Amino acid sequence: MSNAFFVAGTDTEVGKTVCSRAIIQAAVAHGIQVAGFKPVASGSQQTPVGTRNSDALYLQDAANVEMSYEEVNPYPLLEPISPHLAARLDGVDIDFGVINQAFDNAKTKAEMVLVEGAGGWRVPVTDEVYLSEWVKERDLPVILVVGIKLGCMSHAVLTAEAIERDGLKVAGWIANRINPGLDNYAEVIKFLENKLPGKKLGEIPYMPGITRRDLSQYIDIEALVNA
Fold first, then answer.
1. What is the CATH class of 4-225?
2. Domains of the chain: which residue ranges?
3. Which of 104, 152, 176, 186 is 20 to 30 Å from 110 at the Cα level?
4. Catalytic entry in 16, 38, 136, 169
C-alpha cells in the first residue's frame, strides 16, 4: 500500500472534500491510522483562532491521527478564487518547501496520508507553477474524483490522460453524483468504467447535507489499499 494518495478533481466543485472525507472514514473503519492533508485552500475565513478553511476542517475531523490545523493546512487563503490569485491578494508566496515540510510531518504520524488538491489538475499556485508539479515531484498516486454531470466524461478522460502524461499512476476513481437529475447516470458510469485507468473505488449518491455523514460504506478501501 502506498502511504500517501493525492485526490484530484475533474473540475472545481465536484466533491473532492466529500470523497476525501469518505476515503478517510473508510480507512479509519479499516483500522488504518490516516491523516488528512490540504496543502492549499482558497475560500477560508478569519476566526478567533486564525484563518480556517471548512474543507481542511472536515478532513481534520474525519482523521484518527492527531494533527493541529496548521499541520493539516499550511496555506489557508481567504478569497474563493484560484490559489495563485488568492495568495497574491493575501500577500503570500506559496512555497513547495513549506508544503513538503508539512507533508513529511504528516507521513511520520500516519500510516496513510490523504492529500486533497484544490480545483482541477492544472490549478495554478503561482503565475508559473501548478500544484500538479508538486504531486509529480512527490510521485504520488492519484485518486480521481468525477462529479457526475453533463460533460463529465470528457473532463474525466482528459484529466486522467494529463495525470498519466505527467508520469503518475491513477490509483482509482470515485463517481460523485452531484446532479440528481441526470437521466443517463448508469450509462455514464459504464463509459467511465471502460475508459478510465484504475479501479472504480466507489459511487457517492446524491444526498443533502452529505458532508457531515459517514460515507465509509461507499468506498472500496480494500481496492485502494491493494492499488
1. alpha beta
2. 4-225
3. 176
4. 38
